[in-house]
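Design a sequence for this backbone.
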């Protein structure tokens, strides 16, 4: 025999959708387990839930109006089976809208919890980033209490169940609202949601299982690190509450600007100012490279302004592979602004000799305004 779904909600067969919804809401407020813990009420609450699920679905309601039972044809069997256990299936969102969540509590949180990570910023120069370095730093973090070893208790005392929440970690309260009486849960203010209290706490850590202390740590920075990179030191961060496992310490590298070199990934760039005559005849410039010491940069005869001489494998090591980048020398040809009488005569003779060299008008893009090559390089690679 088909169930009387209309009768369960107390509405007539011709009731509108809004009348069915109002009837369900009224009964749900009265029979919800958080408001009415009686077992009979809970059973009735499940029944009206199934009735609302059926009558709010047009196809299922059509089957009811034809004298059938859509829940039996779906294999539901009993009233509670159509909800799939916890959460009441598709009606969970309705219960949450009415009552602020399901009837089940979260339960107590563990007293022993993992610690948080710590962040330390370290400033390094370019040479330290290139070669790698070991730095000794002092950090102020929570460490394991050496008196109670994380237990939080004094001597042989032990935690006891909280009398306020009875070990549940939360307390419940009933409030009146437009929907009737609503039960809400919040963490227990006495035990902070743990479910236990320590009547005789450790005299050093006060029951937390950890104390703050300064300690020295050796931080090994690998070769090739760059600005913004982080080195992770496992289990060197904050010890967790109750002596829980420590988090990690992250060391963030801040690379100081260099007077000569500009870094672009694993490549190094620098500017070489070459007199006009040396650019024409060729010359050699020695630069103190970061990892290679004095390194010769060959300026070939006839080198033009803006030319780039590249030494492969003379840049920064890659932090993962160790393969070194390149060293780029940007040539800036310097034209003398003041000439004495002898200089003028020499250049005049050169001009007369090189009659094929004449001034030309060419259409070019406008050159960057202001600043030399070094300034333009820094703007290009660092944005400064």
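Sequence:
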């Amino acid at each position: 025999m088909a169930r009387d779904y209309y009768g369960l909600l107390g509405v007539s067969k011709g009731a509108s959708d809004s009348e069915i919804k109002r009837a369900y809401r009224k009964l749900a407020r009265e029979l919800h387990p958080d408001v009415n813990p009686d077992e009979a009420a809970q059973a009735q609450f499940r029944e009206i839930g199934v009735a609302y699920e059926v009558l709010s679905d047009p196809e299922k309601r059509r089957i009811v109006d034809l004298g059938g039972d859509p829940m039996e044809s779906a294999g539901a069997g009993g009233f509670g089976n159509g909800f799939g256990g916890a959460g009441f299936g598709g009606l969970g969102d309705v219960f949450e809208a009415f009552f602020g969540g399901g009837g089940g509590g979260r339960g107590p949180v563990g007293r022993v919890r993992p610690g948080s990570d710590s962040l330390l910023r370290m400033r390094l120069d370019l040479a330290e980033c290139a070669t790698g370095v070991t730095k000794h730093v002092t950090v102020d973090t929570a460490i394991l209490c050496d008196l109670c070893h994380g237990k939080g208790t004094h001597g042989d005392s032990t935690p006891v169940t909280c009398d306020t929440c009875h070990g549940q970690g939360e307390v419940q309260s009933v409030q009146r609202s437009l929907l009737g009486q609503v039960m809400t849960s919040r963490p227990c203010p006495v035990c902070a949601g743990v479910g236990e209290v320590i009547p005789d706490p450790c005299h050093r850590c006060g029951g937390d299982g950890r104390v703050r202390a300064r300690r020295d740590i050796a931080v090994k920075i690998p070769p090739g690190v760059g600005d913004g990179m982080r080195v992770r030191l496992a289990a060197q961060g904050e010890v967790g509450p109750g002596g829980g496992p420590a988090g990690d310490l992250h060391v963030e590298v801040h690379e100081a600007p260099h007077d000569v070199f500009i870094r672009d990934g694993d490549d190094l760039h620098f500017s070489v100012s070459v007199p006009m005559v040396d650019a024409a005849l060729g010359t050699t410039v020695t630069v103190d490279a970061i990892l290679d010491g004095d390194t010769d940069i060959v300026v070939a005869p006839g080198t033009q302004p803006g030319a780039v001489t590249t030494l492969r494998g003379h840049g920064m090591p890659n932090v993962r592979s160790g393969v070194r980048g390149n060293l780029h020398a940007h040539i800036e040809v310097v034209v003398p602004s003041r000439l004495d009488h002898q200089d003028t005569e020499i250049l005049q003779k050169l001009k007369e000799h090189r009659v094929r060299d004449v001034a030309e008008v060419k259409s070019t893009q406008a050159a960057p305004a202001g600043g030399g090559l070094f300034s333009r390089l820094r703007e290009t690679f660092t944005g400064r």
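Confidence is low (pLDDT under 50) at residues 73-105, 366-370.
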